[in-house]
Each structure stands twice: as structure tokens, then as C-alpha cells.
Amino acid sequence: MSEGNQANSAYNKDNPFPARVVENRLLNRPGSAKETRHFVVDLGESDLVYKAGDSLGVFARNRPEEVAEIVQLLGATGDELVTPLRAPAPLPLREALGSALDLDGPTKKMVELVASRVTDTGQKAQLEGLLRPEAKEQLEEFLYQRSFVDFLADYPTAKFAPQEFVGLLRRLMPRLYSIASSPRVYPRQIHLTIAVVRYHTNHRDRVGVCSSFLSDRVAVGCTPVPVFVSHSHFGPPEDTAKDCIMIGPGTGIAPFRAFVQDRVAAGATGRNWVFFGDQKKAADYLYEEEWEDFTAKHQVHRLDLAWSRDQANKIYVQDRMRENAAELWAWISGGAHFYVCGDAKRMAKDVDAALHEIIAAQGRMDTAAAAEYVKQMKKDKRYQRDVY
Fold first, then answer.
1. Taking CA 50 as the corner, what is the angle to CA 383 and CA 255, rounded to the nearest 5 degrees?
2. Sheet containing strand 302-307, strands side by side
3. How many CB atoms lie within 10 A of CB 349?
4. What is the pLDDT of residues 33-46, one digit of tens each?
5. Engineering a disulfide at 237: which of 15, 84, 242, 298 sits with its beta carbon 3.0 to 4.6 angstroms away?
6. pTM over 0.90
């Protein structure tokens, strides 16, 4: 689908479509340390279209219990009219906190305000200590472990009027998720592969706003979920005769499920090589039956798996790349497209380093020549990344 087609849709980021989630199932098996879920979003009668490589934008709502606690701690009723940042019109406080504002990510400004208002001398000294220039790292750690509700609960003598408090909060932005399905196979559905975020800091259970919204608070088939398609330049080769190498550990596998579905449905003659990794094969092999089926039918020509917790030495996708360096170079030098999806901080950097090493060693190049080769791959759109 072209970007133009998508631009002509009646639904977009400013006017999202109220979709229904028609499936929500756990992908991990017993013994997993993770909670990864497969969601199916029904596009209904909307005119939304997408292509393999696109993302779905989802507008979430905050947890009602956290909203209720903030309202209570502010000494408010929830019906007070407030105007969030860049809001077109005032909203009741409860609704603003529920759907318009991000309740996470307090900044130094919040610490400064609370320190200036709190009447407990011990708490004042603690906060002022965190604001000293030499305490920058401690301040960052302090803020990382807290949401806005913590300041209201832990420093009750620092008072805020509802509008003032709302003015401290950023807008709640939509979350973008890589689409895990092909429109050639599922034209009226979008599949998502989402890790549900749950953790504990400062004596509170925390959650990822959107992942927990979809997992815990959206009733399958009932709750309308505002969505829009975010067009991406990330996608399988237009030339279906080209080979594809896809590196997608964890939820990074999502777009490559879409790529393979799409290429199979299009009758692509190019080969598919998939690298997938996670912690334990028995518990974390996402879409195992599908990958085994694709492989048995020779629709995925190579499938290399890396399990980091199944043996004493941790094995990652970049290790599997190095083990297969000669064949990887044969594919790449033969014109294959190379794709990476997933964690930007570590995995994508490690994969990029491995790619440079393999090209240098197998292509008999020095470091500078290998870097130039990779740069040309990017220019030719043969090396694409969808990292977060």
C-alpha cells in the first residue's frame, strides 16, 4: 500500500479508529520469566490499510486505581475542570488523568516544587540534598524509581491545586508497535507481539501504560481501542527475488512474521533467513509452530535460534551470526537485504558490530572498507533497522 493511500484514510493520529481487540493470548509457556502476548486488532469497516513493516499506534488509558489515588491525594473530587497542555478544551480532572496525561516521568522541576512546599524538615532536607549539583546521579535514580503519584503520597504536606498539578504533566502519547501480520494474509486485521511490562519500585507495583492497558483492561471484542497506522519505510524488498536476512530476538520477531507471511503470499522467489533468540527454548520460543511450519515448507530457508539461558554460556543472535559468517557473507555479497528489529541499546549495537566484523573478515577488507560497505548497504536500503 502506498503512503498516499494511507494519507487518504479518514483515520489517523488526530482521528484514531475505535478498533476492537478480538484476540489476546499469552505466547510464553510455563517457566518463562516474561509475559509476551499476541493481540489481534480488528480493523472492522474502517478504511485503514497497512503494509508489512508498518506500525500500529495505540492510544492507551491509565490505570483507574492510579487515577483515583491521585484525585484523592489532591483532595479533589475528579470533576474539577482542568486544561492539560495543548488541550483544545477543559476536561474533568478524572478524564484528563485517565486518558490525556502521562502519569510517569517526573522531572527535577517536581522535586524543586515539592522541596519548596513540604513542611516536614527532614523531607525538605532530603529533597534539597538531591538538588545539589554533585547529587545528579542520585537524583536521576530517585526520579527513575518514582511516578507523580509517589510525590503526592510520600510528601503529603506539599499541596497542589488540580490545574497546577495537571500543568506539570506531559501529554500521554500513543505507543507504536511493529505490526506482526501481512495485509496479503490478514487485510482486515492487524497482529501485534507485545511484551507486557510489570515491575516494582519504591514499594509500588508499576506497569507499562499501553502493554498493561491492552493485556489487563481491554475486554476482548468489547472495549474500543483508538488506533492508527503509522507508515514506515521499513519493509521487505520490493524485488521479491532478493534474499532476506532478518534478525529479530524477543518481540523484535514481530515484523519478520509479517515479512515472511507477505513474501510467501506474494510468491517471492528470494530466500528467507531468520535469526530469533530469547531466554529459554521451552518457554520463550514465540510462534514456534509457525516457524517450524515455514521451515518444513522451505518458505524459511534457514532458521537460527539463540537461547541465552539454556546453557552456562549465554548465546545471542550475534553469536549465531558469527558462527555462520561465511554463509552470511555469501548471502550479503549476493545482494541479500539485511534487517534488524528490537532493542536499540544493546542488541542492535551488538548485531551491527558483528555485521561489520563478518564483512571485514569474510570480504577480506580492512575496518574502513567494511564500514564503507555497510554505509553503502544503508544507502541502497539493503540494511534497515526498526529499533526501540
1. 40
2. 302-307, 272-278, 244-247, 337-342, 383-387
3. 13
4. 999 999 999 999 99
5. 242
6. yes
